[in-house]
Write a structure and sequence with these properties.
The chain is about 60% helix and about 0% strand. With about 230 residues, the chain is mostly helical. Strands 1-2 form a two-stranded antiparallel sheet. Helix 5 packs across helix 7 and helix 8 runs antiparallel to helix 9. It is globular. It starts with a helix and ends with a helix. This is MerR family transcriptional regulator. It holds the Pfam family MerR_1.
Length: about 230
Amino acid sequence: MSIGAVLAQLRADFPDVTISKIRFLESEGLVQPGRTPSGYRQFAPADVERLRFVLAAQRDHYLPLKVIKEQLDAADSHEAPAARLPRKLVSLSSPDGDGLPAARDFAQGREVRLTQEELLEQAGIDVRTLGELEQYGLVRAGAAGFYDPDAVLVAKTVRAMTEFGIEPRHLRAFRASADREVGLLEQIVTPVYRQRDADAKGRGDEMVRELAALSVTLHTLLVKAGIRGVTAG
């Protein structure tokens, strides 16, 4: 099938996917469609499933493309052609299956605006807890007073941490650290967004996604290494 037909199939589950995104994944070696004699791409059903795997790994597990490609390459070298997709995603950012909320729970909600009542219901918290999350900058409402789906994920994650005796006030350092990371990454991606060609926004969005995934992975590994140092001592 053509790249346009592939896009139509993927859009139902991945509304943000674009032709530029598919071309980018091809350039990174994550999918290798065939070519007609005149040079047009021809995707097989297996190519579409491979793209679904890549997009889901990015969206649901925040995996960097390098990690996804390593998993696909490993599967390619050990599995028969009909079963080349890895049976299980291995996430560096959540290697032990920690039960934290998955991004796919809200994958269709990039443009969804949640009221305070909806946030409280979906996150399983009360008004007092939400007030603390907002006080310490962990959750922020938009200009119109609505919340995005990521606010639910943050609230759920903090709720899980409170079961270990950690209170929202203890997590101000996470907010400060995230703001510093945003400032650093903004310096990197802003020049890309300012380029004048038609694909600049797509490249910038992909760079943001990749850098965010790498940041999550690095943060997790550094925390794990620090904890191992404490327990070893």
